[in-house]
Amino acid sequence: MNIIRIKKYFPIFTTHKNLVYLDNAATTHKPQCVIDALTAHYAERNANIHRGIYRLSEQATESYDTARAQIARFIGARDASQIIFVRNTTEAINLVAHSYLRHHAKAGDEILLTVMEHHSNIVPWQLAAKEKKLTIRYAHITKTGELDMADLKKKITPRTRLIAVTHASNVLGTINDIAAITRLARARNIPVLVDGAQAVAHMPVNVSALGCDFYAFSGHKMYAPTGIGALYVSKKYLTTMDPFLGGGDMIRSVSLEGATFQDAPERFEAGTPAIEAAVAFGVAADYLTRIGMKNIRTHEKKLTALALKELSKIPGITIYGPTRAEKRTGVISFTSQNIHPHDLASLLDEQDIAIRAGNHCAMPLHTLLGIPATARMSFSLYTSPADIRTACRALRTIVKKLQ
Ligand code: PMP
């Protein structure tokens, strides 16, 4: 991968010449092809979809359907109808809580999560649990920040109605063995939801090989616009789920007494969607495929190994999560003795280095780690070894000065 050439393809780095952007877990920047897709859609094909009896509307519909097929191909879904367009990972998970869990769980049933989940893979289940009187169980992590598979296995019971787990932690970087979890679940007929927000843009993902029933992800973390994301649903559950939001486009017929509904995916896509964002999402997926997800994973693994090495040389720095790059994505959370993560982030910002500080929407995990906040660096395909060296050099100077 030619990082210099790739970086030139992301206009933000021309506008902000000295920017060292290490907050890719929050959102990624957009390549020229994605920006062009948005402009081209509005300039050439803008109309509402599905309803038009005129060519422009048919073209807009065709673009939207093409995007669905591109996303299906990108994650190895067998059929484009298994992809539901949503706003983001959060909405995808809420959709499953609403359309699947609320209608299939009874009082006393259980949902199995892990302690490393992002709030968007905790709170929707807590809301459903409160309403339906369900119990939430949490699988623990080991001392090295990996999922404790023995604990997870122990917490599966005859009342477990769903296992919801992140593919990769947005704090620890830990990559979870989803195939192993789905093997356990399948034997007991339990569906598995995977939060793919931190995985899809960083490693090859094939939902058919993973064997999961739901896979949720956001476009904006994989070089596409905000306001678009996707939920993959296995055929087994696609036909048994109830509608999510009610309104136009998701119905077959409506009378004053009631309504009948479309099949998936339209059944779950009420109202006018983010058409141009979906189109650009498909373009982003094809762009990643052209670069090659294996190449991206190899590149980011090297960056992670370098960052782990450089960070561990700085006195007083504690790194959280697995110590080996093979076990994690390019997300590294750390703390520095006596210096608050927010101070580290704002001092780095003075040098045009963007990192994130806080609890990263994973308060339960931070509580468990016994810290209120961490500083976090996260990488992407346009991150260079030089970016990491620059950030670590700056960090070392700040730590030296303040400690
Ligand atoms: N899950 C994980 C693991 C995440 O990192 C994030 C984003 N920080 C989300 C879910 C939520 O993504 P979004 O805000 O795009 O819905």
UniProtKB/TrEMBL annotation:
Alphabetical list of NCBIfam families matching this protein: sufS
GO MF annotation, one: pyridoxal phosphate binding
Enzyme Commission number: 2.8.1.7
Pfam families: Aminotran_5
Function summary: Catalyzes the removal of elemental sulfur and selenium atoms from L-cysteine, L-cystine, L-selenocysteine, and L-selenocystine to produce L-alanine.
One GO term of the biological process aspect: cysteine metabolic process
Gene3D superfamilies named among the record's database cross-references: Aspartate Aminotransferase, domain 1 (3.90.1150.10), Type I PLP-dependent aspartate aminotransferase-like (Major domain) (3.40.640.10)
UniProt cross-references to CDD domains, sorted A to Z: SufS_like (cd06453)
Record has Transferase as a keyword: yes
Catalytic activity: (sulfur carrier)-H + L-cysteine = (sulfur carrier)-SH + L-alanine
Domain of life of the native organism: Bacteria
Family the UniProt entry places it in: Belongs to the class-V pyridoxal-phosphate-dependent aminotransferase family. Csd subfamily.
Residue ranges annotated for the Aminotransferase class V domain, each copy included: 20-388
InterPro entries, per the entry: Aminotrans_V_dom, Aminotrans_V_PyrdxlP_BS, Cys_dSase_SufS, Cysteine_dSase, PyrdxlP-dep_Trfase, PyrdxlP-dep_Trfase_major, PyrdxlP-dep_Trfase_small
Keywords: Pyridoxal phosphate, Transferase
Protein name stated in the entry: Cysteine desulfurase
Bilayer-spanning residue ranges: none
Presence of the UniProt keyword Mitochondrion in the record: no
